[in-house]
Structures are given as C-alpha cells and as structure tokens.
Amino acid sequence: MYYLMMLVLYSISLLPFPVLYLLSDFLYLVMYYVVGYRKKTVFENLRKSFPEKPEAEITSLARKYYHNLTDMMVETIKLLSISKAQLDKRFTCNYELLNELHKTGRSCQLHLGHQFNWEWANLGCIQNVTYPFPVVYMPLTSKPMDRLFRRFRERAGSILINARNIREEMEPWKEKNYLIAPVADQNPGKRRRAFWFDFLHQKTLFYKGPEMSARRSDIPVVFADIRKVKRGYYHANLELAFEEPAKTQEGEITAAFVKFPEQQIKEQPETWVWTHRRWKHKWIAGETEV
C-alpha cells in the first residue's frame, strides 16, 4: 500500500506547478461543494473568531481557506521532488538570524503556528540553517499515511521526535546544540499541561511545554511569521522574541506567542487551519488564566 501511494504521489509531484494548481482547483470544488469536509467546524470557528464580520464575508473566508488548504495538499506532494533552488525561490526567510544564533553555541527554540505553508518552512529550514533540526511530530493512526508523512519530513535529513515520547527521545540532545520548532498553537491533550488565554475572542488553551523547556534550558526563543505572498509563494519573517528565557516569569513567553499568531490570523485569516477543532476544551469558570 505504501509503495503504491509513493509511486502515485511521486508521479504527481513531477508535474509543473501550473498543472498542480489546476489539480488543487478541482480538489477545492470537491472538498468544499461535494464532500463538505468539516464545513460545520470551519464556519463555527470563523464566526466565533470574527463576530464582527457579516455572514457573506465569513463565507468568502471559508472558500479562500479551502482553496489554500488544497493548495497546501499539492504543495506538500511537490516536496517529494522539488529542488532546493526551486523551494528557495518560492519560500523565502531571514534564515541568517538562526545561523547567527548557532554561532553563539546555544540551542534555539522556534515557535510557529499552523499558517500555510509550514511543510515548506520545515524543508526550507533544514536546507538553509546550520543547526541540527530535530522535528517533533505526532504519529498518525494510519500506518501507511504515517510512513508517508515521515518520508516527507525525513527527505532532507529532518530528525523526527515522537511527541508521545518527547522526553526520552530528546535525552541524547541534552549536550548538543540544536534547533527545535514546536507548532505552538495546537490544541493541548490535557488541561493541566496548558495555560488559558483569550485568543480570537475565545478562552483558549495553549501548551506549557515549549515555554517550560525554553526557561529550563535557557535557550533563545524565536517567533516565525509565515505569510502567503501570492499563490505558490511564501515569506517567513523570524523575530528573536526572548534571548534569556530563564529570566522570564511563568506564562510570559506563551502570552507573547499567543498575541503573535493572533495578529497574523487577523491580517491573513484564510491561511490558518480552520478545520482543526481548536476549541474542543471549554473554559470552566474559576480555572486559572494567564
């Protein structure tokens, strides 16, 4: 099953971008109008996040989001054959910030959100940054799909760290300098391991883990702002947010990060993952907020 999927997807990845985006246009029509993949979740998330927007604008945002989602699908497939030169042309970033930090002999933590296209960001970072780059990932239930996505992420030398066993798998890295990039806006599995914040007009949980790790190891924290410039082109801007995390107060780093993707989402809402059930956890009056 895996090899058949790889054969089909690799063949698709060889298609030129104009043809891939025609495929994306077709997938968008199927996903939005025929299948209606998680449309209820998308519209509910958009309405609650932008209560000031009229329904016509919410519908327009939903359509743009699904089109971006199918674009990301074909762009991710393209990773199987894309050259470094082609990716560097289409995904630009001020990688020099990370390379300068690497020269200081300290590890680094890069915080980013679910803004398109984080899969291109992953490969671009591996190919252009001098740090070793262990990547935290959550294994998929489907073994063929899990193997496939591991292939995408390991293609250029990414070192995968199982999120379910992160402490043990990060143990060998304690005496090394590395760059780690947690996708820090995802929904925590357990409430006790998270902070509550106001985010997009809703009480929202954010993982404590990335901040706790940065403060404990006192490694610089960099925030990544990914923007879609035009179809098939992205730019990521990296910003040194905290050079000495050990000197911060509990919740300070996470609070700063919460504001960071929130501003990105307000300015380019169609590029964030609205199909994600981000607000599964409901705030209970009396729970601690930051």
What does this structure look like?
- The chain has 290 residues and is an alpha/beta fold.
- The chain has one domain (2-271).
- The protein has helices spanning 2-13, 17-35, 39-49, 55-78, 84-90, 96-103, 118-128, 143-154, 166-170, 209-217, 252-267; strands at 91-93, 108-111, 134-137, 159-162, 179-180, 194-199, 202-207, 221-230, 233-242.
- A five-stranded mixed sheet has the order 1-9-8-2-5, sandwiched between helices. It has a two-stranded parallel ribbon with strand order 3-4.
- A hairpin with a 2-residue loop joins strand 6 and strand 7.
- The longest helix is centred in the first third of the chain and has 24 residues, at 55-78.
- The model has no long low-confidence stretch (mean pLDDT 91).
Mean pLDDT: 91
Number of separate structural domains: 1
| Beta-strand fraction estimate | 15-25%
Order of helices and strands: HHHHHEHEHEHEHEEEHEEH
The end-to-end distance, rounded to whole angstroms, is 47 Å
**How many DSSP helices?**
11
- Spatial order of the strands in the main sheet? 1-9-8-2-5
Class computed from helices, strands and strand pairing: alpha/beta
Overall shape: it is globular
Largest sheet: 5 strands, mixed
Fraction of residues in helix = 40-55%
**Rg from Cα:** 19 Å
Low-confidence stretches: none
How many runs of DSSP E, i.e. beta strands? Answer: 9
Q: Could you list some keywords that capture this structure?
A:
alpha/beta, 290 residues, two-stranded parallel sheet, 46% helix, globular, five-stranded mixed beta sheet
